[in-house]
Amino acid sequence: MKKYINHSYFYLAIFFSLLAGLEIPFNTITYSYIFYLISKKSISLIVPSVIVIILGYAAFAILGYIKSVVVNKNIYLINHKLKNNFLMSKMSHVTEEQEDFESGNLSFFLNDLKLLEDNYWRQIFSLLGSVIMTLGTLAYALYSNVYITIIF
Prior knowledge:
There is one protein chain. The protein has one domain. It is built from 5 helices and no strands. Helix 3 runs antiparallel to helix 4.
C-alpha cells in the first residue's frame, strides 16, 4: 500500500488529525479555567478569557474542516492510483473472448474501494485524533490532580 500513498498529503493528514485531536483537551482546560475564574472571583479576566476561548473554538472548527479536506484529498489520490494500477494490470491481460470482464471488475470499483476507504483510511486518521485526545486529556488530568485521576 505504500506505493499508493502520496507522502506529502499523508503526512499533512496525520498532522491535521493530531491537531484536531487536541480539541477535547482544550475543552477540558477551558472548563477547568472557567471554574478557576469562578472560584477566585477574577472578574477582570472573564472577558479576555471568553474571547480566547471563542477564538480557540473557532480555530478547532477550522482545523476540523481542513482535516476533512486533506483526508478526503488523500483518499482520492490513493483510490486514483489504485484504480489506475488495477486497470492497467487488468487491461493488459484481457482478451476479446473473455466474458463478464466489466461486471466482474465493477464490484471492485464500487464496493471494495469504498470499504477500503471507510474501514481503513478514515479509521487511521480518526484513531490518530483519538489517541492524541486521550493522551492530552490524561496529561492535563494528571497535571491537575494525580489522586483524582487515578481514582477515575
